[in-house]
Design a protein that fits this description.
- The structure holds 3 protein chains of 3 kinds.
- By secondary structure, chain A is mainly α.
- Chain A has a single domain, classed as ABC transporter involved in vitamin B12 uptake, BtuC (Orthogonal Bundle), CATH 1.10.3470.
- Chain A contains 14 helices and 2 strands; from the N terminus they run E-H-H-H-H-H-H-H-H-H-H-H-H-H-H-E.
- In chain A, helix 2 runs antiparallel to helix 7 and helix 11 runs parallel beside helix 13.
- By secondary structure, chain B is an alpha/beta fold.
- In chain B, the strands form 2 sheets. Chain B has a 6-stranded mixed β-sheet with strand order 6-7-8-3-9-10, with helices on both faces.
- In chain B, a hairpin with a 2-residue loop joins strand 9 and strand 10.
- The longest helix of chain B has 16 residues.
- Chain C is mainly α.
- Classes of the chains: A mainly alpha, B alpha/beta, C mainly alpha.
- Chains A and B meet through helix 8 and helix 9 of A and helix 2, helix 4, helix 5 and helix 7 of B.
Chain lengths: 337, 252, 288
């Protein structure tokens, strides 16, 4: 570029994007591939991965990625209603303890404790959060940050649910395949389910609440009822992850209410890109393997998540997913001003 | 007589800290009336609307709608009873396409009672309503993201949201402010049409000429108090009203 | 008598912890979740200055207050400025800063009885039959002095008045020529500095523990929420309510209940009266 001349970046839709966006009749198999590949490829990969990784250490990492992916999706769903949670650990812990307690005290088998943990945990979380659902912004987040801590302290102080020792020797999965495919299946279901919900009329109300809740109220819609419903959905996904993890570890203790289960999903969403759900899943599939690879760092991993959070917020606020999406659909060129 | 009264405001008062925003205001609106509310800036008009529609809780006083006490009810319940309002600053759901803005009122319990509204059907209804209000369907205006539309469209989108609620009482908070003359000229007949079809309308407005064309009664507020109420021409001749408006009214 | 004395000292220490957080939040609406981390970092910095570099105590204390204050200032320009406007991103970012600081310190092992700051004045006095460390009295003194100084600062000095102007109405304040970013950065710097002051006053009473980084944040939040996050008198009231209830709980139940009470207080107050006991709810928003 010559001295003194100014250039700016221009972004244009790729021809194939413009074509397949507005014309609903696909012109060629290339168009079909263009639309299908970004969806089908990751899904196929996710379904194949458990088979490919079977018997290796990375099978466990895949399982963890799915668990944290579920928590990240649950965060992203709350966020798309304008509820910012700093307490995914609450959802996770509620599900984990609910399933664990049923298994430990009542001897319920796994195929009952997991659904019961999902529903029961979600009901508990909804009941806890509904009283504060009218709070806006920071205040709601503070409550969600406090609640898991409060329960961890309550369990310790009252020595209920196993106290500091936790509940030991819970039932294991009859086979490793069940655990991993439950996790993968739930992740895909949550991913596409949440995307679908937000495109429905129901989702329009949720997105409306995030945009401007007074408008939604003026339109005669009880926003608190809808917020409660979305908390229930998000909490169910988080609790399911918790119940799944409990039986994987065959143990549930206060650690399920720890800050880790809040920060990692949060970092995953911010890194991957909030608002698309795919970004949340992508983020956890980057972060969890990364943190496993850096296992040697021990306690410093939490600090690393923090650094990633700060870096992602400051440098790439749109997130990796939106960046990739843009590069896929658009090209850039420099034009002279 | 009482059957006729759709909205009754009884000695409504609202204080913010030490400031009297609305002070002892009473108002009766009959079914089918077109009432204008005017007054200088800061005279409590918007607060009065917020009080009626439940967005702000009154310090004292009562609001009765069709004989039913609605004071202190949450805004969504009041909206579901049939009182729709626009916002002064044209609040819309600016990240959604314009027609999706109307999905929200169409999903409200009130409209669900009126028509079935299966999925997809609501989109058609929404676009029909917008088309009637001058969102050109053929040039895809209803499909654009609300935040990208010009101000005049946002104002009308706000109005469309109210219409989609199928209200019995429509409260407009400075609908015309910020609209171009041509847009005002296009919107005014629509309001007259809604009024003819039996809709009761309360309109807060600064554009007096347009207001006087359509309103058959005008209430004047100043410093939170009601200072006059009556037919437009008579009200404007009153000395207090002229005093309150001195300077601002003449050029209009 | 014991309850009264311990209640008062505990309340003042809570007030000290909360005052910086409330100041920053009240002025610039910036929820500084790294408050507890700054408290901790300040204490450890002073310890390093004192024991590793051999700097005199008073100088070390001043240096670390200034260092953390400057850190807060540059944190605003470097990071928060990019995220202004979205309260949630501010929370997430400051929480992330807190986690980085605390976890790194934990990893470096700054915990336990070898990390103790010496008290300003040794010994203890007998007040009404109860032995009170001199340090506690110093702490009460510092707390009371800070409250008075802050009160005078926000009412008498030009900077303080511009702080209040920004807090009341940002747009009008900008219109009369107050730079909101400058003010916010200053408020964050002051809040961070105050966190260190609190740390220096309170830490000599016990050993440094990295877990404090999180606990102090919770206490600051609890105090702020009980009293109303934006107001200084509210913070004071909140700290007295919380301070006495903690002592009462510790006396009549067990010490573990203290944290439970603190956390439960936050949740219950937010559920019942979100604006806090003295806060003003923003009802003025739509008044025209």
């Amino acid at each position: 570029m010559a001295e003194g001349e100014k250039y700016r970046k221009e972004r244009l839709d790729r021809g194939i994007k413009a074509r397949s966006d507005t014309i609903y009749v696909l012109a060629s198999s290339r168009d079909l591939l263009y639309l299908l590949m970004p969806r089908a490829l990751p899904v196929a990969l996710l379904i194949l991965l458990p088979i490919l990784l079977h018997g290796t250490y990375w099978e466990k990492v895949l399982f963890y990625s799915c668990i944290f992916g579920l928590l990240a999706l649950s965060w992203d769903f709350m966020n798309s209603v304008g509820l910012v949670s700093l307490g995914q650990a609450l959802f996770f812990g509620a599900g984990a303890y609910f399933a664990g307690a049923l298994n430990h005290y009542l001897g319920w088998p796994i195929f009952l404790t997991i659904p019961a943990g999902t529903i029961g945990g979600a009901l508990i979380c909804t009941a806890l959060l509904v009283p504060v659902v009218r709070l806006r912004g920071v205040y709601f987040s503070i409550v969600t940050l406090i609640l898991p801590l409060l329960f961890a302290h309550l369990i310790e102080t009252l020595e209920i649910l196993g106290g500091t020792h936790g509940l030991l020797s819970l039932s294991a999965y009859p086979s490793g395949w069940i655990a991993i495919y439950l996790a993968v299946g739930a992740l895909l279901l949550a991913l596409f389910g949440f995307r679908k919900i937000l495109d429905e009329d129901f989702g329009m109300i949720l997105r409306g609440i995030r945009d401007d809740d007074r408008v939604v109220m003026a339109a005669g819609v009880n926003i608190y009822w809808y917020k409660a419903q979305s908390i229930f959905l998000a909490a169910a996904v988080g609790s399911f992850a918790g119940a799944l993890m409990t039986h994987y570890y065959q143990f549930v203790g206060r650690s399920v209410l720890a800050l880790d289960y809040t920060i990692l999903p949060l970092a995953a969403v911010v890194l991957g890109g909030p608002g698309s759900f795919a970004g949340a899943a992508l983020g956890s599939f980057i972060l969890v393997p990364l943190s496993e690879a850096l296992r040697a760092m021990g306690g410093l991993r939490m600090a690393l998540y923090g650094l990633i959070l700060i870096g992602a917020l400051a440098a790439l606020p749109e997130g990796i997913f939106h960046y990739l999406q843009r590069r896929y659909h658009q090209f850039e060129r420099m034009v002279k001003v | 007589m009482t059957e006729d009264v759709i909205l009754e405001v009884r000695r409504l008062t609202k204080t913010f800290g030490g400031i009297m925003a609305v002070c002892d205001v009473s108002l009766e609106v009959r079914r089918g009336e077109f009432v204008g509310i005017i007054g200088p800036n800061g005279s409590g008009k918007t607060t009065l609307i917020n009080l009626i529609t439940g967005f702000v809780k009154p310090t004292s006083g009562k609001v009765l709608y069709k004989g039913q006490d609605i004071t202190g009810k949450p805004p969504y319940e009041i909206a579901c009873l049939g009182i729709a309002r626009t916002f002064q600053m044209a609040r819309t759901l600016h990240k959604l396409p314009a027609f999706k803005n109307l999905i929200v009122p169409l999903c409200s319990p009130r409209v669900r009672k009126f028509r079935g509204g299966k999925y997809g059907e609501r989109d058609d209804i929404a676009i029909d309503i917008l088309d009637d209000l001058g969102f050109e369907r053929d040039s895809f205006v209803p499909y654009k993201i609300a935040g990208t539309l010009p101000h005049g469209y946002l104002k009308r989108l706000d109005l469309a949201r109210c219409i989609a609620l199928r209200p019995e009482l429509l409260i407009l908070d400075e609908l015309f402010s910020g609209m171009a003359m041509s847009e005002v000229a296009a919107t005014l007949p629509m309001l007259e049409k809604f009024h003819r079809e039996g809709l009761t309308i309360i309109m807060v407005e600064h554009r007096l000429r347009e207001l006087f064309r359509v309103a058959n009664r005008v209430m004047v507020m100043n410093f939170g108090q009601k200072i006059a109420d009556g037919p437009p021409q008579k009200v404007m001749e009153m000395e207090e009203v002229q005093k309150a408006y001195l300077g601002t009214e003449v050029e209009e | 008598m014991e309850i009264i004395i311990y209640g008062i000292t505990n309340s003042i220490s809570l007030a000290l912890m909360a005052i910086g957080f409330s100041l920053t939040f009240g002025i610039s609406g910036l929820p500084n979740f790294a408050h507890g981390a700054f408290y901790l970092l300040g204490g450890i910095l002073t310890w390093i200055f004192l024991n590793q570099l051999g700097i005199p105590y008073l100088v070390a204390a001043l240096l670390s207050i200034l260092a953390i204050g400057a850190f807060g200032f540059f944190l605003y320009w470097g990071l928060m400025l990019r995220l202004r406007g979205l309260a949630i991103n501010e929370v997430i970012a400051t929480l992330a800063v807190a986690i980085v600081i605390i976890e790194v310190l934990r990893w470096m092992g700054f915990s336990g009885f070898s990390y103790v700051l010496p008290p300003f004045i040794r010994g203890s006095v007998n007040i009404g039959g109860v032995w009170v460390d001199n340090q506690r009295i110093v702490m009460v003194g510092i707390g009371a002095a800070l409250i008075v100084v802050l009160y005078l600062f926000t009412r008498r000095t030009k900077t303080g008045l511009s702080f209040r102007a920004i807090a009341q109405n940002e747009r009008t304040a900008i219109a009369v020529g107050i730079d909101p970013d400058w003010t916010a950065a200053l408020s964050l710097a002051m809040g961070s500095g105050l966190a260190v002051v609190a740390g220096l006053a309170i830490l000599p009473l016990g050993a440094i523990d990295t877990e404090m980084g999180y606990d102090i944040l919770l206490y600051a939040l609890a105090v702020g929420i009980i009293g109303g996050l934006e107001s200084l008198p509210g913070a004071l009231l909140g700290s007295f309510i919380l301070g006495f209830s903690q002592i009462l709980v510790a006396t009549f139940l067990r010490a573990q209940w203290q944290t439970v009470v603190t956390l439960a207080a936050i949740v219950i107050i937010l559920a019942i009266k979100p604006s806090g006991l003295l806060g003003k709810y923003k009802e003025l928003e739509e008044r025209v």
